[in-house]
Design brief:
The chain is mostly helical and 198 residues long. α2 packs across α4. The radius of gyration is 26 Å and the shape is flat. The N and C termini lie far apart (81 Å).
C-alpha cells in the first residue's frame, strides 16, 4: 500500500482540510488517511463505514506502512523550505496534482506513482515552463504591436512595457529592497568611520 497523491486527495476531501493540516496523532485523521490509502490502492471501492469494521490488526499494519512512508519522505525535506512553507497558506495536494496534470503531466503517474517529496521539483519545472511560454508569447505580441506604436515618446522600449508579469514585479521589488539594504549598510558604515585628520 502506497501513500500516493490520490490517497492524500481522498483524505483531504473527507477531512475537508489540506494535507499540511492533518494531525496524525488524531485517531480520526490517521484513520481517514489509512482508509484513503487503502481505497486508492485497491481495485475495489468501499466506504469508510466498511473500513471501520475491519480488524484492528489490519488497520495497525496499514498505519505502520503509512508512517514508514512518511518517515521515508521526511528525509527529503529541506529545513529552510519548511520555514517558508509555515509562513504561507496551506495548499491542497489535490489542487497541486490537478495543476500538474493540466500542465501536461501523465495523470496516472501524478496520482498513483509520484512521491509527495517530488511535487516541489515538478511544480517548479511546470512553473518555469509556463513562465517561459508567457514571456515568449509577450515577446511575439510586442513585435506585432511595435510597428503600430509611436516609439519616439519612449513609452514602449521593451516587451515589459507592453505587459509586466506578477513575478517580474516581485523580482523588481526584491531587487530594490536588496539595493536599499546595501545602501543603508554603506551609510551606517560611513557614519561609524573616523573623521579625516588634517
Amino acid at each position: 500500500m502506497k501513500l500516493n497523491l490520490q490517497s492524500i486527495r481522498i483524505a483531504e476531501r473527507l477531512l475537508n482540510k489540506p494535507f499540511g493540516e492533518f494531525d496524525l496523532s488524531s485517531d480520526k485523521d490517521s484513520d481517514i488517511l489509512i482508509y484513503s490509502a487503502m481505497v486508492a490502492n485497491s481495485d475495489e471501492v468501499f466506504t469508510y463505514e466498511t473500513y471501520q469494521r475491519l480488524p484492528n490488526k489490519i488497520k495497525g499494519k496499514a498505519l505502520k506502512q503509512i508512517f514508514t512512508q512518511l518517515s521515508f519522505m521526511n528525509q527529503f525535506n529541506d529545513e529552510d523550505e519548511g520555514k517558508t512553507l509555515k509562513e504561507t497558506k496551506p495548499v491542497y495536494i489535490g489542487e497541486v496534482a490537478a495543476n500538474l496534470i493540466l500542465a501536461g503531466m501523465d495523470a496516472h503517474y501524478v496520482l498513483y506513482d509520484m512521491y509527495l517529496f517530488e511535487l516541489r521539483d515538478y511544480f517548479k519545472a511546470v512553473e518555469t515552463k509556463i513562465k517561459n511560454k508567457l514571456e515568449n508569447d509577450r515577446l511575439w505580441a510586442y513585435f506585432i504591436v511595435l510597428p503600430h506604436v509611436d516609439t519616439r515618446g519612449g513609452k514602449m522600449k521593451s516587451p515589459r512595457d507592453l505587459l509586466t508579469f506578477a513575478w517580474e514585479l516581485e523580482e523588481e521589488k526584491e531587487k530594490k529592497e536588496k539595493e536599499f539594504k546595501i545602501a543603508e549598510a554603506k551609510f551606517w558604515e560611513f557614519m561609524k568611520s573616523e573623521p579625516l585628520k588634517n
